[in-house]
């Protein structure tokens, strides 16, 4: 009897000891968030041993052993964390969202791994409402009224997601990092200066010349690919090679030659692997650096970083050709008292941020046009008229000499109504950054109050909020009717169809908004105008497979590009310019094998 009582007392002591140790650990993790991964790991490995030691010192005959201590401690800690996250005491408790997401960000990482995070977040908003909880400490909102308060001048600095996306070394000795990862608003504003200068009016002229040369090359290479009449062209890969080469020119005055050798060195794959890793670790910032040191992951990231170092060294030894981003970053680094690594990382950022994004929009546009042949035709008509009016012949030499003569068309292309509408509608339906616009209250501010109508939403420090462009831009409150469909007419001020469109430009955020928005957005728009105009003017495209299914195949799709007939034979000179191009396309259809 006595021994049973003493055993029960021992058990009680053990349970109390374990619970106290677990609660103290939870409190410490919560208060000091983010605790460095190594510190958390050491604590989790040692605390049960320490608890065992103390219990055994207090009750020498206790049966509290290490084999019991570890599972008991982890169980108590997990229970405590889960209970708190689901409890009404959590500051985000009143916001709806799936239980699994309230409990852990591992779920978000899993969804990202499957590549469908944007669709999933939209479905959650459809189901739970405009402000939802998508992590233990994270909200997501599609309320456009909140956008300026989150992303705008009165908004917040970047959120913890950026700690998990960091690809460089975590900041240099002065605290600077790549622009996109900088969470400190003051440092961010300082580094944003050279970026803004690099995309000012003067440099943009140089970039447009570089762009035209690359457009001419793209046109030329596709033309060669179609020299037998038609060609199967991978419309995910070609735009990627084109934008990668172009960003190489802009950032490093580089000669990357991806279009020339169809990326035989696997640069795109190298970048994609590094980016894929980051799209997952952004959900688990506290573990990102440790995961990054795993050999296979480290290999991916270091391969990309070493590539950056290699091209930076090459660039620094190059004779001065033109003011590129490397030049502007170098100029600023002297002023900011910073180091070479910062130039390398920021120029690499230009390749990452500027190539994949623009390429993905170009692929989306081709996909949308091929799925809507009537719109494709209307766009061709507008582009044909433009080429005729400005007497542009995209024969490589002619275009190259236009550049020399300082003839550039970015501005006039920007005034083409239909083209503009197609690009805007693609950016609306398939924004290249569909989910990750995350912000969090600045350190030491304790909280951020967001006003929504008469309601005040309080976001305490230690929590974050995201604005997902994919979900916002498909919200029927802001874009209707047909919010999920490709309706470029919604961008006209008046529609001939008599349909009254709701088009909320303040909910159109493909380049984000506010002081941390995309510095390259004007250039990206010009780039897309040129590339699309040339593709539509000189090539007839159609899906390679009639049963193309974007759900399974996106973004890999192959189009059959048929060059317009002018590359095959001279059209009848008696035809007017406009009808000549129409004829050219009809002729090119006859070039189809068996067609
Ligand atoms: C269609 C093409 C592009 C799209 C859709 C796009 C979109 C975006 C978005 C949404 C952000 C903001 C992320 C945030 O608010 O947290 C961003 C940031 C950024 N983008 Fe772009 N981008 C494009 C092209 C470019 C180009 C051509 C460059 C040129 C190098 C560029 C460089 C950057 C940089 C450096 C940032 C970080 C800005 C900062 O933190 O202050 N992007 N981009």
Give structural notes:
InterPro entries: Cyt_P450, Cyt_P450_E_grp-I, Cyt_P450_sf, Cytochrome_P450_monoxygenase. Keywords: Heme, Iron, Membrane, Metal-binding, Monooxygenase, Oxidoreductase, Transmembrane, Transmembrane helix. The chain crosses the membrane at residues 12-29, 35-59, 66-86. Its cofactor is heme. Heme binds at residue 518. The structure is a single chain. The strands form 4 sheets. A 4-stranded mixed beta sheet has the order 1-2-7-4. Strands 3-11-10 form a 3-stranded antiparallel beta sheet. A hairpin with a 2-residue loop joins strand 5 (447-452) and strand 6 (455-460). Helix 9 runs antiparallel to helix 16, helix 17 crosses helix 21 and helix 17 crosses helix 23. Residues 565-595 have low confidence and may be disordered. The chain contains 25 helices and 11 strands. The radius of gyration is 28 Å and the shape is globular. With 595 residues, it is of the alpha+beta class. The termini are far apart. It has helices at 2-31, 37-58, 66-86, 99-103, 106-114, 117-128, 147-150, 161-165, 185-198, 201-225, 237-252, 258-261, 267-281, 285-292, 295-317, 325-336, 340-371, 373-389, 396-404, 410-413, 417-429, 469-472, 521-538, 550-553, 577-590; strands at residues 131-135, 138-141, 231-234, 437-439, 447-452, 455-460, 464-467, 479-480, 502-503, 539-543, 558-563.
